[in-house]
Specification:
Layout (H helix, E strand, L loop, with lengths): L1 E5 L4 H15 L1 H24 L3 E3 L3 E4 L1 H4 L3 H12 L2 H37 L2 E5 L26 E3 L7 E3 L4 E5 L6 E2 L8 E6 L2 E6 L5 E3 L2 E2 L4 E2 L4 E5 L2 E6 L4
Parallel strand pairs: 7-8
Antiparallel strand pairs: 1-4, 2-3, 5-6, 5-15, 7-9, 9-10, 10-13, 11-12, 11-14, 14-15
Length: about 250
């Protein structure tokens, strides 16, 4: 079981995902609502047309009640809309779908901004997941060096399953990430994922990935000292760290 701390959400992916979900979800409701609007227009049209001519036999000539109360233009517009038939239903459906997608996208974007603000203060939510079969796998992309016959002066990483597999590291400053110029380049990580610095008390690990680095199965929330044999995990890559001879 591995814990992940979600410290930051990306705005534009959330915006696009919200737009996609909102568009898909509103297809059927938009069509049904468009049918309801069309039927309501038909009912209102029939009701207004029934009031268009008011007959008062023997008293007054036939009167156009709609003209008297200034609703004749309203009836004309309703008749035009209702006569569009399925074209009106299709246009309303498309408009409602677009509106639903935009509304969902805006809400997703605002939620992302609010979460990032709260996470910046509280550290974000912690998510635990069983990633057995991934966590603990050692990177095979870096060429492991054979075990030296004596203690090495420089630090190195070793494989948890096979201590004889070693990855030599430069002294002083060690960088880990997917960029090719890192001391240990590993794919599927942030370009500058983490950094290990030689300081007075020893080698100290700094997480630059926003919560995807662990030391002894604990998320790195602050600069962390790395004693001999410490288990360090970058994403799904796990190593044992050895500071080497002083």
């Amino acid at each position: 079981m591995t814990s992940y701390r979600i410290r930051r959400l990306h705005f534009f992916p959330a915006f696009k995902f919200g737009c996609l979900i909102g568009t898909v979800v509103t297809v059927l409701p938009a069509f049904l609502l468009a049918l309801v609007v069309y039927n309501v227009l038909g009912a209102v049209r029939s009701w207004l047309e029934s009031w268009a001519i008011l007959e008062l036999p023997g008293l007054l000539p036939d009167l156009n009640l709609l003209q008297i109360i200034n609703l004749a233009d309203v009836l004309t517009q309703i008749q035009r809309l209702h006569n569009m038939g399925w074209l009106l239903v299709g246009g309303l459906t498309i408009g409602l779908i677009i509106g639903g997608g935009l509304f969902s996208a805006v809400m997703a974007g605002l939620s992302t901004l609010v979460y990032n603000l709260v996470a910046a203060i509280s550290g974000g939510l912690v998510y635990s997941a069983d990633v057995e079969g991934q966590v603990g796998q050692v990177a095979q992309v870096a060429q492991a060096a054979p075990a030296p016959g004596r203690a090495a002066a420089n630090p190195w990483f070793s494989a948890p399953q096979d201590p004889q597999q070693r990855w030599p590291l430069p002294p002083g400053r060690i960088t880990v990430g997917s960029a090719a110029n890192n001391s240990l380049p590993l794919p599927k990580l942030a370009p500058q994922h983490a950094e290990i610095r030689r300081e007075t008390q020893g080698y100290v690990l700094y997480d630059l990935s926003g919560g995807q680095t662990w030391v002894n199965n604990q998320p790195v929330l602050r600069p962390t000292l790395l004693p001999e044999g410490t288990t360090v995990q970058f994403g799904t890559y796990a190593f044992h760290f050895h500071p080497g001879s002083p």
